[in-house]
Hints:
Elements: E1 10-15, H1 18-33, E2 38-43, H2 50-60, E3 67-68, H3 76-93, E4 98-102, H4 106-117, E5 122-125, H5 137-148, E6 151-154, H6 157-165, E7 173-175, H7 179-192, H8 196-200, E8 208-210, H9 215-218, H10 221-237, E9 240-243, H11 246-254, H12 258-262, E10 267-270, H13 275-283, E11 287-290, H14 293-302, E12 306-308, H15 317-320, E13 324-326, H16 331-342, H17 359-371
Parallel strand pairs: 1-2, 1-4, 2-3, 4-5, 5-6, 6-7, 8-9, 8-11, 9-10, 11-12, 12-13
Amino acid sequence: MSRRPAARPTIVLAVGARPNLMKAWALLRAFGRERAVACRLVHTGQHYDDRMSGVFFEELGLPTPAVHLGIGSDTPARQTARIMLAFERVLAADPPALVMVVGDVNSTLACALVGAKLGIPVAHVEAGLRSRDFTMPEELNRVLTDRLARWLFAPSADAVRNLEREGIPPSRVHLVGNVMIDTLRAHRRRADRSNVLWRLGLRRTAYAVLTLHRPANVDEHERFGVLLSALEWIQRRLPVVFPVHPRTRAQLGRLGLEGKLARLDRVIRTEPLGYLDFLKLMAHARLVLTDSGGVQEETTALSVPCLTLRDSTERPVTVRHGTNVVVGADPDRIIVETERILDGRGKRGRLPPYWDGRAGRRIARILVRDLGPGSR
């Protein structure tokens, strides 16, 4: 009597927001090479429109999600609760061997909680990052997800040390590198074929890029206004490309700052850009100003000077090894560091260990080994 081959263990990879999709590409590629497991993509719909999600599926060639929960925007608590209710139904209908979550958005914590409550092991990609600023919703998501996870895949040595200090058993922690950099390296040539500089009338290394969306920066009039005052000085020196996040656009109107920004005639406002256009912009910028975690990593990988408009960072490796300087919302500090960069005295930086484009492959091999035959 012939035996039927054992079914491959299934991993559910849960994503919800734009930064998750870049990381998901590297993981899906790696699991596609490992025939011993199957990987099923579930999209919560936390970012749901074409500008914030759809264009990434198209440009990166991501597969259509097996399930799209269609959650949409809401308050953090309600959004987390709605994701949990919908994701629980998905897992209960077809329990996988493992739930994998990435990053630190609300979908990350919500899906990890559901997996843990159903007794399904959880893996966290990008584990151990800490800003120690608990006013950031992302910090709460990171810490709680790491407590729930059975596998913690850390992008850098400082993340490993954070987990050790928190009492996470070393057997659960794996230093694998940064999956975001896997995706960047794989798409760099395609990005360089983008005509975004021509469309915006820019010359290489003769412009700056700004991203701004964190609640701490855009929800309060005084701080947002101070950042715009610093931007006013910078745009006198060189044009600044500002892809405006939908949330930031709404806050400009609510806080009465639209007019102040409109008067900055060398600030080039755009809609949120696709992955390839934005990668091309970053790669050839003179400097990047940001409050995004992922952009801090990408500029370090690209050797482009970065000023982080926050009071802390959960990615200190980009400061210690890379091109990043944390400047907060102090306009004097922002201007001094910008002058330093424009005068050719910006940080050179170097690539952190394990940021070599093979992080996804390391993760896949560890999970294939650990899940083994007989897992669902």
